[in-house]
UniProtKB/TrEMBL annotation:
InterPro entries: 6-hairpin_glycosidase_sf, 6hp_glycosidase-like_sf, GH15-like, Trehalase-like_N. The lineage of its organism: Bacteria, Bacillati, Actinomycetota, Actinomycetes, Kitasatosporales. It catalyses: alpha,alpha-trehalose + H2O = alpha-D-glucose + beta-D-glucose. The keyword Hydrolase applies. Residues 216-587 form the GH15-like domain. Belongs to the glycosyl hydrolase 15 family. The keyword Hydrolase applies. This is Trehalase. It holds the Pfam family Glyco_hydro_15. Its cofactor is phosphate. PANTHER family: GLUCAN 1,4-ALPHA-GLUCOSIDASE, TREHALASE. One of its GO terms (molecular function) is alpha,alpha-trehalase activity. Residues 3-139 form the Trehalase-like N-terminal domain. Pathway: Glycan degradation; trehalose degradation; D-glucose from alpha,alpha-trehalose: step 1/1.
Amino acid sequence: MNPRIEDYAVIGDEQTAALVGRDGSIDWLCLPRFDSGACFARLLGDEDNGYWRIAPKGAGTCTRRGYRPDTLVLDTEWDTPEGTLRVTDLMPQREKVPDVVRIVEGVSGRVTVRSTLRLRFDHGSIVPWMRRSDGHRVAVAGPDSTWLRSEPHVRTWGEDLGTHSEFTVAEGERVAFVLTWHPSHQPRPRLIDPYKALSSSVRDWRHWSGRCRYDGPYRDIVVRSLITLKALTYRPTGGIVAAATTSLPEKLGGVRNWDYRYCWLRDSTLTLNVLLAAGYHEEAEAWRDWLLRAVAGSPEDLQIMYGVAGERRLPETELPWLAGFAGSAPVRIGNSAVDQLQLDVYGEVMDSLWLARQSGLSARPHMWALQCALIDFLDEQWRQPDEGLWEVRGGRRQFTHSKVMAWVAVDRAVRTLEEHPELEGDLSGWRALRDEIHAEVCARGYDPERNTFTQYYGSRELDASLLLIPRVGFLPPDDPRVIGTVDAIAADLGEGGFVRRYDTEDPEGPVVDGLPEGEGSFLACSFWLADALYMTGRADEARALFERLAGLVNDVGLLAEEYDAEAGCQLGNFPQAFSHIALVNTALTLFGTEEAG
Ligand SMILES: OC[C@H]1O[C@H](O[C@H]2O[C@H](CO)[C@@H](O)[C@H](O)[C@H]2O)[C@H](O)[C@@H](O)[C@@H]1O
């Protein structure tokens, strides 16, 4: 049986991440960065596209697994007739180059272990040349090389374009494998001690998790979400990727398969808000600084996403040699949404910078000048149709959420000036602009007949992003139009107890997103409904929905982007920052008031 998305756990070193299946196989790993070519791409293809499996000989999926509490160190265990075996997986903090450490340990009895390593560089396409050197198996292909060794040494042999070993461990015995990536033109990498790497990883992650200020219900999954957000952070620059994968499908067998290994301003600014709320000021500051570097320049050149180091060009291409997860083709790398106009991003960025200032993050030179330039740009552009936060590919529209977020941008600029008289800006002009946007949204984005805001001006369609209207302060939660919108979205976009982001089928005209219909419920939107229910005084319903959503995390606390309520499985890229951000936010909203801070 093919693995499901929720069968995977993630390990990583804050520069890249690997997905480990319940069968002990690493099926996804891009080296050396999140957005590099994958050397294990079985996730999106088959065994010929690369994987590394360590498990008891002849065993299937594990008996149990879990992270060591408050860490990103994964233990996978099998009970077999011979005894119990544990494999501990981690990627230690790197000094220069990345290592994958896999420690095999006999828990009881005497178990025969099998390791099968098939490296396929450049997204599962290139079989490397192999050689032996200083007790290592060295694989080389183009710019990439990997060095495999074990401590103590176990025999490896080559067969069937892979590297294999078989050995036995008795109770208390350990064998550690280390796979190190290295630029192929350089001499052999520095060796790390895998056992020390294990203890320092456990110590460092526990220290980090201990800084979380949330102490309310569901603390375990909140901390797991924060660890996941940290794992999706590219440490050298502070950039945060939207997910560790590309092309996990939003519909099984469908074409909605996108590359999320980049930094979206939207997803990342929301991460910053959550990090600040949970007490992680340093990380929030690092991200804020990444943002200021990335968007430096002219506001008309602002992009909605960047590479982890701020790269601007992310051309979208298809990888025809990968069949796709469960046959969901095409597999894409790069993302052409990079060139879209998404007006909401200005609101999210201004909101985050406002929040950063409020939270006491030290202001940076030019930050206010940049904010003023963004507002000047928006002043000219906010009337334009755009692709909106869902990055539609069916043409630009006058999306109501985009205009609401344009209002947010101007509102935060006004409030900053009001609270910081030492800053300069056009207070009266911005107040007038804020009022103008508000009036237009209420006149054109609201359907009085149905008492709901609509997806775009003049449309009868709904959009779950409008659940954010009370949260961003556009209207108070008790405004009848807000209550009507929450009810309409819950009724029309609700599915199996969760929420879809919009209708992917439009009987009245061309489909808004320009793609074949059908996708799962959108998890972030489902959390937003819980927030909106809570804010509009329906706390019991909000808690019930949060509990249902908390029940969707996989056995190690992870969420993809979407959920197929009918099939009962997760969909979309994994683990996804957007979903985990929303989970933490809702926990803080529903339970955090007394406990946090
Ligand atoms: O489903 C269509 C779009 O899907 C992706 O965008 C989604 O993911 C982004 C990252 O988490 C998020 O910011 C955005 O709001 C989501 O709609 C994809 O990147 C797009 O290219 C695609 O059109």
